[in-house]
Amino acid sequence: MQISVLDTAQDVADQAAGLLIAQVENKPDSVLGLATGRTMEAVYQAVVARAAHRFGHARSFNLDEYVGLAPSNTASFHHYMTTHFLMHLSPSMINATIPDGQAQDLDAEARAYEHSIESAGGIDFQLLGIGVNGHIGFNEPGTPFSSKTRVETLAHATRRANAPQFASPTDVPTHALTMGIGTILGARKCVLLATGGQKAAAVARMVEGAASTDCPASCLQLHADAHVILDKAAAGALRRPV
Ligand code: GLP
Fold first, then answer.
1. Is 140 an annotated catalytic residue?
2. Which residue is closest in CA terms to ligand 1's atom 3?
């Protein structure tokens, strides 16, 4: 695991944007694994400002989507990706795939999603955030490292953390479709970003704890090309200097 600690959240976003842009410059038809969440908003903003025209040949798969939300729902990850990234791309839209949280048969949708990633040749570059409980995608603590795309029951901590995106806390879905940890570990490169002191405990467990399903993000210790980019606040609970 390569770890960088930068001064500010904006520095983290700028560095991640630079890595994403370099990826499509080096391989225009890259298969990208994309993430949502507040941490990623500044990343997409920087990518759009610097290199929107570079993504015409890329393909993307999003990590996850809430079960039951229509793409038009402003809290859905479909809506997030459209407004923060996809609608700003030119000249041609990136070929983007997001799990269908409204699928009639969610298990079949999960299998088809996994198959689509394999058919595309696998993910070249996976962008990741981290939940306050150490989740990646929506893989909650206890998820086996071999897991593939599937329906996940959201942890209480996750539903509470994501409640501000919804009109009422009770509107937060109880389930999501998510790439599995095995799916994520299959990416050739993983880049995880964390900013803010509320992520510091999860970051310390990911980096300095044992690789264990108790902290899903700790799986990155087992990945051959994982880069973790932190701001000072998110690095605040690390015991060993980076
Ligand atoms: C959600 C997403 C994760 C994301 C996490 C952190 O639960 N499923 O992929 O990493 O939240 O989001 P934020 O950046 O808003 O803290």
1. yes
2. 137
Residues 181-212 pLDDT 10s:
999 999 999 999 999 999 999 999 999 999 99
**Three-state DSSP class for 85?**
coil
Q: Tell me if 95 sits within 8 A of 60, measured CB to CB.
A: yes
CA of 132 to the centre of ligand 1 (A): 9
DSSP at 196: S
Strands lying side by side in the sheet with 175-178: 64-66, 175-178, 150-153
Per-residue tokens: 230: 């932190």
Q: Is 135 designated active site?
A: yes
In the residue annotation, 65 being an active-site residue is answered as no
> For residues 66-89, b (16+ Cβ closer than 10 Å) or e, as one string?
bbebeeebebbbbbbbbebbbebb
| Confidence (pTM) | 0.96
**Alpha carbon distance 146, 180 (integer Å):** 7
Residue 130 CA: which ligand 1 atom is closest? 10
* 159 in contact with ligand 1, CB cutoff 6 A: no
Structure tokens at 186: 């299959």
The residue behind tokens 């009422």 is: 168
Q: Rounded to whole angstroms, how far apart are CA atoms 140 and 213?
A: 9
How far is it, in rounded angstroms, from Cα 129 to Cα 194? 6
Of 62, 73, 133, 162, catalytic: 133
Atom nearest to 64 CA in ligand 1:
8
136-162 tens-digit pLDDT: 999 999 999 999 999 999 999 999 999
Q: Is 195 in the pocket of ligand 1 (CB under 6 A)?
A: no
